[in-house]
Amino acid sequence: MNEPQSDPATPPNRRRFLKLTAVGAGAAGLAGAGALAGAGQAAAVTSGLTALTHPGVLHSRADLDHMRSKVAAGTSPWTDGYNVFATDFFSKSSYVVAGGRATVTRGTSPENGNAELWYDCNAAYQNALMWYITGDRAHADKALEIIKSWTNALQEINGADAELAAGIYGAKLAAAVEIMHYTGPSGSWTQSELDATVAMFENIFVPLINVYGDGGYGLMGLKGMFQIAVACNNLTLFNDAYNAFYTHSCCGLTKLIQSGTGQCCESGRDQAHTQLILGSLAEICETGRVQGLDMYGASSSLLLSGFEYTAKYNLGNSVPYDATFGRCNWHWSAISTDGRGTFRPIYEMAYNHYVKRAGKSAPYTAQVAARLRPEGAPFQCDHPGFGTLLFSL
Q1: DSSP at 182
Q2: What is the pLDDT of residues 282-312, one digit of tens each?
Q3: At 157, which helix (H) or strand (E)?
Q4: Coil, helix or strand at residue 279
Q5: Which among 13, 64, 176, 214 could bridge 250 via Cys, Cβ 3.0 to 4.6 Å?
Q6: CB–CB of 283/59 below 8 Å?
Q7: Spatial distance between the Cα atoms of 206 and 230, rounded to a whole number of angstroms
């Protein structure tokens, strides 16, 4: 995607997650997972960390240096990925900032400010990466202009899908903030400006996402919390999200991917949301890796089995399907053909970790990664995208 298909003033439609309000009179969104059928928490799990590593959302400094050096040397596949990344609409330092806005509404018409926020989150993150790779100050200035504009303006995120907006967009914005905080040009960001950005995250985003709901909906909040916690250097929030990843009975890892098969809890819904879940879990695990935690290996590398199951099915092969495995509040009777064969740019991250770093076999994931290489832009703001540049080893 070199340019968005519609103007921010007329946000594009998208398939949405079934809302938490469907569980019962909206109570689940307020009471958290405890209001969901069958919900309940296991004993708390903590990360054991005493401090967070920075930069530490998706990319360590070593990771950033690695991609920069490979691009500078003209080494494939990084240069192939960079050529796609650098020409993307959101990677341009000439990008015109769409926000900030005082209010962002998602899931309730009119969705005022919604497209503006996710456009700007993409541009902030991609310009932050362009700054680090190229050293061009114009990209740093653009990323900081975007971050500061939303910090100064945003007062509320609302609407039926406010949690999705806060989780998905917050995760992307946190990644941009983290890069600029720890690598930005000297003097470009004052302590008071940084403190205001942290306050924006903790006062506006966090209250919407710390109620972790059901299935993919809850996972979007969990992803946002994980990345925001690092950007805010808040170990308490980080451990809260870490605990939910392992123990939450409706959006924890073992409730999203079935042990033994790799079936996703939304495999019966459609393949786009299934891949949204897998990609988001990988983003959490990637940040965990940067923090020194092997979350990719959780439950005997359960996430890998999820990628393999979904890649195998979407490559045209048959897979087993268990109709009793789904979300806490919904099950589907058969695996969905909706979106089958349409791949999201999420596979390089998983492939490079499991195959190249961990030395595991992932034949179907490898096939999809090779097919997509070099990976391009994500759907809207759902993932980092561009994995060939960002995550190749």
Answers
A1: H
A2: 999 999 999 999 999 999 999 999 999 999 9
A3: strand 156-158
A4: helix
A5: 214
A6: no
A7: 13
- Write phi, then psi, for 303 (nearest 5 degrees): -60, -40
Model pTM score:
0.90
Q: From CA 51, how far away is CA 249, in angstroms rounded?
A: 27
Residue 147 in this model has a pLDDT that exceeds 70: yes
Cis bond leading into 374, ω under 30°?
Answer: yes
Environment class of 341 (CB within 10 Å of its CB; exposed 0-12, middle 13-18, buried 19+): exposed
- Tell me the two tokens of residue 93: 């330092």
Distances (CA, A) of 264 to 273, 295, 314, 333: 10, 18, 13, 13
Of 379, 374, 349, the closest CA to residue 362 belongs to 349
Model confidence at 3, pLDDT cuts 50, 70, 90, reads: very low
Cα–Cα distance measured from residue 374 to residue 369, given in angstroms and rounded to the nearest whole number:
8
Bridge partners, 157 (sequence order): 104
62-68's contacts with Cβ under 8 Å and 24+ in sequence apart are: 63/290, 64/129, 64/132, 64/179, 64/183, 67/133, 67/389, 67/390, 67/392, 68/132, 68/133
Phi and psi for 384 in degrees, rounded to 5? -65, -40
Beta bridge partners of 103: 156
Q: Work out the burial of residue 222: count CB atoms within 10 Å of its CB; fewer than 13 is exposed, 13-18 middle, 19 or more buried.
A: buried
